[in-house]
Amino acid sequence: xxxxxxxxxxxxxQKDIIFPDISLATADQLLIxxxxxxxxxxxxxxxxxxxxxxxxxxxxxxxxxxDLKGSNMDAFRGQNIGVCLQKPVFxxxxxxxxxxxxxxxxxxxxxDKKHCENQMKALGIEHTMHQRTWSLSPGEQQRLMxxxxxxxxxxxxxADEPSSSLDDINAQAVIDLxxxxxxxxxxxxxxxxxxxxxxxxxxxxxxxx
Length: 209
Description:
Blueprint: E1 2-9, E2 17-18, E3 22-24, E4 29-33, H1 40-47, E5 55-60, E6 63-64, H2 71-80, E7 81-84, H3 96-106, H4 113-122, H5 138-150, E8 156-160, H6 168-185, E9 188-192, E10 205-207
Parallel strand pairs: 4-9, 4-10, 7-8, 8-9
Antiparallel strand pairs: 1-2, 1-3, 1-5, 5-6
Helix pairs in contact: 3-5
């Protein structure tokens, strides 16, 4: 179970951003969409514990986010939440598949090279396995970042604009894999996006304005 209540975030030069309450049960899927500047990315950062709300509460299972500080929040996120941010973040000294295996290690799971290879094949980036991440195209980097968030099979997945740099075929492949992965592992899913191509994949939606 994941739940938010009365979330607000205030920046120094702006009035409060007020967000609708969210409640997800096991395997639920939610699309949050709206125009640029409506607070989508701020909400995503609150949901994964990168930002702290000005007021309101966020609870994942029995864990209240406000009880987690600093490295404890980082450890909780690493073990329980798969976060796919809009800007890819990799370890430059490692190649693509090594980045995936290192993500498994950080989550406290045994690095499984075969599992990583299969997931890369599913998104058509198996040819990048031994390449440095900085040499990949923007679309390849985004698909690899997406896999990096999913590879440890988290119970809660949050994706920021997962289809923004992809053509129609690859955008559909990413969304299909997201939904399939969540169903098979009974994980909760929140996608934050303004991409109209993916709206039909979600019956549960929140529009921010």
